[in-house]
Amino acid sequence: MNYEQAIKDLQDNLVVIAEIERRQSAILREHTERIQQHERYQAEVNEYRRRIDQNLAEITDKLNGLIGCIDRLPRNPPN
Does the pTM exceed 0.85? Predict the structure, then answer.
């Protein structure tokens, strides 16, 4: 093999490597964006679950209060 052919082969290899790096860079950017999108979604889900837990706690307190009020009412036996 002569030097000119070796240089040409190296240049061809560099072009291939540059294209692979470009593709991998694009994939990495897309992957990073998906991770960030997932993290935002997870934060929204966590906030939603926190609000649900808070609402359930308030509902439980109100229901317990209502049950306490009903328990103190006089009861009429059925006729």
Answer: no
